[in-house]
């Protein structure tokens, strides 16, 4: 049997996704190849070179489609750039090399990145050894890759909008030096960027009492690499064993956000809770000058709360329609990525998210590449003996 390479598989999804979303595929395909580097040529018959936490099957890339209230949908790629000999340090270096190679072409603004990047460096000479719970340092094992908090140091994301240059973002791991150090790392980074006040008020009101570093974890720190008025920092909090009401409380910190809308979205996507498998995740958009966060998004790991992707797709389509977007377009995006019947697995639709407040409210659906593996559906009918 002939096996595709990693790049062939992913390009075979990206290309039709672009077509469905009316985007020119040339730049996206070029950047996908750049993200993967020499790893793009690896055969999918070989195991992944790095057990990335980007996706359950360790594909290095995840797609998402962002339906926007006031403009056409955008296509996004989240990626862990694999180093030549993959590891946290070499992946990080490869990611910076990828960004440097594209900085001039796309006018990336790296001043803020340069100001904070050393804070979030894995095992930098100045930081002490990582202190992971149960002393399990991030290693190349399946369980480490699925450990809450995950093992990564730097991810990149690319956003493609009709007729515009792509936008670049980076994601740092606040827990890169240990769970307990995450709050201080984030505070220092946000202080450097002039956003400490918004952070303090957000923390004080959105974390359940005594749960910071326990059931409420600082999971991602995202930075836009452009200079415009919309350049943002996003801070993500994962709420383990949470109810829709917990997400609603966390959202209520943000002026103008309707907490009930957040709770309704969680329930429609994942049921009444508690969300005791993968966590509910919330993100706060922090913008220069504002003493409070300006936007909030909630991410529901829908794949843990459905039997199969048929159910996930129907729920996602209902949410998309409820928020005024086209379920038919979602169906076409799912078909572009899927390589199997939707009832034959679970996890193709990994998360669904609701974005509230500026700069772009809407709904996002995350689509797994499933380059390496498909998770079997949860309930399989077996004939009685
Ligand atoms: N795969 C990881 C997870 O599900 C990280 C991740 C990828 C993620 N895309 C995401 C987390 C979207 C939240 C939202 O946790």
TrEMBL record:
Keywords, sorted A to Z: Transferase
InterPro entries from the UniProt entry: ABBA, ABBA_NscD-like
Domain of life: Bacteria
Entry annotated with the keyword Transferase: yes
Stated name of the protein: Tryptophan dimethylallyltransferase family protein
Protein species of origin: Paractinoplanes pyxinae
UniProt lineage: Bacteria, Bacillati, Actinomycetota, Actinomycetes, Micromonosporales
